[in-house]
Amino acid sequence: YHAQPSQGTEQEKMDYALNNKRRVIRLVLQWAALYGDLLQEDEAAMAFLEEFYVSVSDDTRMIAALKEQLPELEKIVKQISEEPKASQKKHKVLLQLFNASDDRAQKRQPIRGSDEVLFKVYCIDQTYTTIRVPVSSSVKEVISAVADKLGSGEGLIIVKMSSGG
User: Fold this and answer.
1) Ras-associating domain: from which residue to which, for each copy (predicted)?
2) Which of 2, 14, 94, 163 is the one with CA 20 to 30 A from 145?
3) SS3 string of the chain?
4) Over the stretch 71-107, which tens digit does the pLDDT of each residue have?
């Protein structure tokens, strides 16, 4: 972010610094937009975003051209740092199963019907909540648990997303 060329006129050095700073800001904005929900759960990522915002704010005093990106960065930092809240409106939700196989240290054991699964429930208003249900739960029981947690069962849709990446 603070790369400076060793050669060139002062104007060339300023242009170089401005272009580098803009690229880094754009990268951080894209990263935060793609992984915002995961970043909320990572204290180090949140601390980085807040420190980065302060650094960019400080830089805008010396490089006025960075001011155009500051509101977007501020919006993303505030949006990610807000606590997720369940809304009382109609919800379209996405359930994400936390994959226990991602934890390499965890020993493999057979799944029992009494085991519980943790779901992340994403709402259309970009909030989420979590529910815990037994592995043997039916779709109706999962929907019921989501409705209880959100306070409303109207307009609920279950969507399963998977990705090879």
Assistant:
1) 115-165
2) 163
3) CCCCCCCCCHHHHHHHHHHHHHHHHHHHHHHHHHHHHHHHCCHHHHHHHHHHHHHHHHHHHHCHHHHHCHHHHHHHHHHHHCCCCCCCCCCCEEEEECCHHHCCCCCCCCCCCCCEEEEEEEECCCCEEEEEEECCCCHHHHHHHHHHHHCCCCCCCCCCCCCCC
4) 888 888 888 777 454 333 444 555 555 544 444 445 5
